[in-house]
Amino acid sequence: MTDWTDPDTFAQALEEVETKEKGNCFEDFEEGDVIEHDPGLTLTRWGNEQWMGQTLNHDPAYWRTDAAEDRGFDEPPIHPDYLTAATLGITVEDLSEKGGYFLGRTDVRFPESPVYAGTELHVESEVVNCATSSSRPEYGIVSWRTRGTDAETGDVLCSYERTNMIPRRDPVATDGSGTAAAEDEDEPDLPEEFIAPEGGYYEDFVAALEQADDENAAVAYRHERGRTQDDVTVASLPLATLNTAKQHHNVDVMSDSPSGNIVTYGDVTRSTALGHARSDEQTWREVGFDDESFHTFVAVGDTVYAFTRVIEAEDDASSDEAGTVTFEHIAFNQDDEPVYSGTRTAEIRKRSN
Questions:
Q1: 178: which of 109, 306, 316, 343 is 20 to 30 A away, CA to CA?
Q2: Beta-carbon neighbour count of residue 335 at 10 Å?
Q3: Would you give the distance in Å from CA 133 to the centre of its chain?
Q4: Are strands 217-228 and 283-294 parallel, antiparallel or unpaired?
């Protein structure tokens, strides 16, 4: 009788049996395909508060009933960062569990109406583009348009377009022509002065931008807080959003990767940096995000900091209590290396009202 637990026998069995693989390869995607992601996820108060607490997003309107009512909410709503992460997390098993580089995300949008705990999130994605990679023949490039909707009403709660490199089942032949020659780097063209707003209200950003217009200056500053990545942020948070990517929880597989260890879910990195930024402003409502990129991995033990540049301000918003400000946020690590960047549009509370 075969002893399947005999080390030699078991090792041979492991080598010979078929592996039931998870996830899809580049060849499995075709432009125009619509993928309904199953299961969905019920957005909970606990999940929302866990995400906000671990990423240092402490806006009281998302925690306290009185602060929520002051903002015009019936109760503390679901934070847009948790909503975005949950929407993407649900898609990972079907779209990117095989691995590959997260190249970017853009056109992230939310409704003006708040989303509350108890909402059942249904997510679907449409393949909008498939392309080969001349520089990495073992990968293809896929873009999806993803929508997270209220399963009961069908209302869109979060939408975006993201692009990933996806492993090919069969690498394509290449002549190497996609490799660009290195160019001489120019000296950085930075303004002579950097201006930080005196406060976090809309008027403070307007005043800083007006001052910068009168000088060769930019409104840009860094945030003091940092958040060192630990087991909770790296493994627990993505798993709570149904993100099955092995990069975040399988140390064995990742031991041979460039990072040598599991790495942080991009939306955790992003949300942590945004939490630092929001702690220095009076956020009223998130409008959307564009041109998001993830520049290098963040691993356990790395610390995430944030830098902000204010691009413009407009006296127009969904409420008279606020104005609209556009920011560029850059997350960076303890070695001052950028790890995330993106453009954010948010409504910022006015001081005068």
A1: 343
A2: 9
A3: 23
A4: unpaired
Can the peptide bond before residue 39 be classed as cis, meaning omega within 30 degrees of 0? yes
In this predicted structure, the answer to whether residue 185 has a pLDDT above a threshold of 70 is no
Tell me the pTM.
0.87
What is the CATH superfamily name and number for domain 22-172+190-349? Answer: Hotdog Thioesterase (3.10.129.10)
Query: Is the per-residue pLDDT at 174 higher than 60?
Result: no
Q: For residues 193, 206, 327 and 78, what is the CA-based torsion angle, rounded to 10 degrees?
A: 150
Length of the chain: 353
Contact of 283 with 201, CB cutoff 8 Å:
no
Residues 6 or more apart whose Cβ sits within 8 Å of residue 40: 90, 120, 121, 122, 123, 151
Rg (CA), the chain: 22
79-127 tens-digit pLDDT: 999 999 999 999 999 999 998 889 999 999 999 999 999 999 999 999 9
pLDDT at position 177:
45
Residue 53 has pLDDT above 80, yes or no: yes
- Torsion, Cα of 239, 126, 111, 156 (10° steps): -90
Domain boundaries, the chain: 22-172+190-349
Residue type present at position 140: G
In DSSP terms, 290 is beta-bridged to 343
What is the C-alpha separation between 144 and 161, in angstroms, rounded? 6
* C-alpha closest to that of 146 among 167, 123, 177: 123
